[in-house]
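Field log, afternoon session.

UNIT: design team B
ACTIVITY: writing a sequence onto a fixed backbone
BACKBONE:
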């Protein structure tokens, strides 16, 4: 009899606590899908730090809507899939394994990868793989100054811009900093022509053959005057110059090193385990 009383008291207490907990969950809830609740605390954690006012309200409303939709679809899926289809433990384990291995390999690469790639290595790779470096677009080397129309002393600026004298090069640098809307006075880098045309109204026909001799071009539009010296031009489908591909080749070499480093780690782990008899393959008898 006493056991029955104790059991009744215990089950009543558990039911009471559960009811209280459910009441607490409901009081703290901001949204509900069937028997699942979104708490105010969960919503607060989701709002990005520093978001205030209307932006905060808008984000909260969108988050709640997406939470409701996600949980409605989840419930629909659970009701319509069989137990085998709902068993995602294998996929979760595979995903966990991939994440852990990826994290380890990333740390290994960070600590062990030699990231110094010499110019000789880059040049050697470029010479050994010429067919890998065909231009996909026209490229150009140039220097230019974009000036508002009626800029004072623009005639002097044109003279300084075209001069090779160091003194006048310094003058055009100072002039450009003072008056130019935009400028580029270092012509050592190759640029995509399509990007340059967004800034300068260059006509490809005006460029001509400039690889042997720089070509000065002066252009005007409604607002601006452009002083341009083209020092190199290469057309699509020709072999890209080494300078244009240096960063690409460096990344290719580093990626190959990374692959070899990871493969060596895997092989070393395998061979060490074999020597220590930590792995076995059982034959089918």
């Amino acid at each position: 009899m006493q056991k029955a009383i104790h059991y009744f008291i215990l089950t009543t207490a558990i039911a009471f606590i559960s009811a209280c907990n459910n009441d607490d969950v409901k009081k703290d809830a901001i949204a509900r899908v069937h028997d699942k609740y979104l708490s105010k605390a969960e919503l607060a954690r989701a709002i990005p730090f520093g978001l205030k006012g209307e932006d905060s309200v808008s984000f909260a409303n969108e988050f709640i809507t997406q939470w409701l939709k996600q949980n409605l679809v989840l419930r629909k899926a659970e009701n319509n899939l069989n137990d085998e289809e709902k068993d995602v433990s294998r996929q979760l384990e595979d995903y966990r394994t991939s994440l852990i291995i990826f994290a380890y390999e990333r740390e290994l690469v960070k600590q062990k990868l030699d990231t110094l790639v010499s110019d000789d290595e880059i040049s050697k790779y470029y010479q050994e793989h010429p067919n890998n470096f065909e231009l996909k677009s026209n490229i150009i080397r140039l220097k230019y100054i974009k000036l508002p129309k009626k800029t004072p002393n623009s005639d002097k600026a044109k003279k300084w811009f075209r001069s090779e004298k160091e003194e006048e090069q310094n003058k055009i640098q100072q002039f450009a900093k003072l008056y130019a809307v935009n400028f580029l006075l270092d012509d050592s880098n190759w640029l995509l022509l399509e990007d340059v045309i967004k800034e300068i109204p260059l006509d490809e026909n005006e460029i001509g053959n400039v690889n042997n001799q720089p070509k000065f071009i002066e252009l005007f539009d409604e607002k601006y005057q452009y002083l341009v010296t083209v020092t190199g031009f290469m057309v699509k489908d020709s072999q890209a110059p080494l300078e244009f591909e240096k960063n690409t080749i460096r990344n290719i070499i580093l990626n190959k090193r990374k692959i070899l480093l990871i493969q060596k780690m895997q092989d070393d782990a395998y061979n060490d385990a074999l020597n220590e008899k930590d792995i076995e393959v059982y034959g089918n008898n």
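LOG NOTE: The beta strands are 29-33, 36-39, 139-148, 182-184, 191-192, 215-220, 224-234.
NEXT ACTIVITY: expression trials, pending approval
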